[in-house]
Design goal:
The complex is a heterodimer of chains A (68) and B (385). With 68 residues, chain A is an all-beta fold. Chain A contains no helices and 4 strands. Chain B has helices at 26-40, 58-65, 81-97, 109-116, 132-139, 141-148, 154-168, 184-189, 217-222, 254-259, 262-265, 286-293, 302-307, 324-327, 335-347, 380-383; strands at residues 7-14, 50-53, 71-73, 120-123, 192-194, 197-198, 210-216, 230-239, 276-279, 359-366, 371-378. In chain B, a hairpin with a 4-residue loop joins strand 10 (359-366) and strand 11 (371-378). The two termini of chain B are 19 Å apart. The chains are: A mainly beta (68), B alpha/beta (385).
């Protein structure tokens, strides 16, 4: 959880996620409190996309909803 | 090929000033360090035939120094690059020395080439003025967090690495940026930068540099300088990944394990032979990785080892006796300062001198656990010289 920065709002969470296909990647965690208590290891996540400054869609990860 | 004792560091110096040096450019800092190291060796720049530099082009550095080098190393793998430069120079010198061409009278082309490898400043560590601290802290979150979640209370101990170090330096060197004792409470009271790293668990951002002069042991003996030679007893290097997120194991550095392994460094020395230890502490948890990955302690034991005082002066393995990247200086690439403190300790001229240091190990990290370099250095007695 990064608490200092100039480019975006802080704090924000950076995580390594493992895709179901196997590879690992860096991502932000969205929709979850940026606290160590909420950001537990081995959370079940799903990919989301947020527009960034270049209007590209940047992958991020949110908690997987049971219904999906 | 073994380099054990075949190569020596005969000159070593930091820039005249470290810390905040706004009036000097990176190139001027390179030159200041190189000139001082060459003078420290009792040589002049005319004696120098090789140049190594990380980040800044060795061609530009050599030209600025008035040197036309016939040995050039621009290896740049992050802050440990200087340890790799020593390894590469040692390998080249050791290879040449098989043909006895370190004799100053050698003149044939092949011999001359090897002879010219005999001395060269390994010019290092320019200034960094960009606010890299926070970005680096961000990058290190994955590797910082994983071991802390193994539930053994490592975090307070990680903080104590910084606190312990400063606390241990009752008479810290006058050149250290942080000279006051830093307690564990101070660490936890400092602002959170990137969980779990507080401000005082992140390295300094300073200007400065350093340089070494390396030559063959034969030449060091034949042309004794003002300072006792420090011998290269073992060297290693490795890289694992360009991205910290791709580490095989967030709780252990494969590059650390490989660069320090007996297979890579080819020296006969092991953890029990080391009297003094430098581990690159860009962040407070790095010494924990170093102690465990290099086999000084078992997995999960480094925190307690530090807490029990074994790494403090008076302990059996004094660690980061210059104050480290956390308290002494950190120019963005700190590895040169590891080597310089090892040299000072082996010469017996360190501000926080450890008694009877015969063998010192320096472990560098490059990038965010991207690469690693290991140097084992020793006195003449340790080298059998």
């Amino acid at each position: 959880v990064r608490h200092r920065g100039s480019k975006t709002e802080v704090p924000y969470a950076i995580a390594v996620v493992e895709l179901s296909e196997g590879p690992r990647m860096l991502t932000n965690i969205v929709g979850v409190d940026n606290t160590p208590e909420s950001l537990v290891l081995d959370m079940d996540l799903e990919v989301d996309f947020e527009p960034n400054a270049a209007t590209r869609r940047c992958p991020c990860s949110g908690r997987r909803e049971r219904a999906r | 090929m073994s380099v054990k004792g075949a190569v020596a560091i005969i000159g070593a110096a930091e820039t005249e000033r470290i810390g905040t040096v706004p009036e000097l450019s990176a190139l001027e800092l390179h030159a200041d360090a190189a000139r001082r190291a060459v003078a420290d060796a009792g040589l002049t720049m005319a004696d120098v035939d090789g140049v190594a530099s990380a980040g800044h082009s060795p061609t530009a550095v050599a030209h600025y120094l008035g040197v036309t080098p016939t040995y050039i190393d621009g290896t740049m793998v992050g802050g440990c690059s200087y340890l790799l430069h020593v390894r590469h120079a040692a390998a080249a010198i050791a290879a040449g020395s098989r043909t006895s061409c370190s004799s100053p009278t050698a003149s044939r082309a092949g011999h001359e080439w090897a002879h010219r490898l005999g001395s060269g400043p390994l010019v290092a560590a320019g200034p960094v003025r960009a606010p890299v601290r926070h970005d680096r802290a961000t990058h290190d979150v994955p590797d910082g967090r994983a071991p802390l979640h193994e539930g053994d209370g490592t975090h307070p101990r990680a903080a104590r690495v910084g606190g312990r170090r400063a606390a241990a330096l009752v008479v810290p060197g006058p050149r250290a940026k942080f000279r006051d004792l830093i307690t564990v409470d101070d660490v936890f009271a400092s602002p959170m930068i990137a969980y779990p790293m507080h401000l005082l668990e992140c390295c300094l951002v300073t200007d400065g540099g350093g340089a070494l002069v390396v030559t063959s042991a034969d030449r060091a003996r034949a042309m004794p300088g003002p300072k006792p030679p420090v011998y290269v007893l073992g060297t290693g290097e490795a890289s694992e990944t360009p991205m910290v997120s791709m580490m095989e194991d967030f709780t252990s550095s494969k590059a650390f394990r490989l660069s320090s392994s007996a297979r890579v460094r080819r020296g006969g020395l092991g953890p029990r032979d080391i009297d003094h230890l430098m581990i690159y502490d860009a962040f407070a948890h790095l010494p924990i990785y170093g102690l465990e990955d290099l086999g000084f302690v078992g997995r999960g034991e480094a925190g307690a080892f530090i807490e029990e005082g074994h790494t403090s002066p008076g302990g059996r393995l004094p660690l980061n006796t210059n104050g480290g990247g956390l308290s002494y200086t950190h120019t963005g690439m700190y590895g040169m300062f590891l080597i310089l403190e090892s040299v000072r300790q082996l010469r017996g001229e360190a501000p926080a001198q450890v008694p009877d240091v015969e063998v010192s190990l320096a472990q560098g990290v490059g990038g965010m656990f991207m690469a690693a370099g290991t140097l084992i250095l020793g006195t003449g007695a340790a080298a059998g010289a």
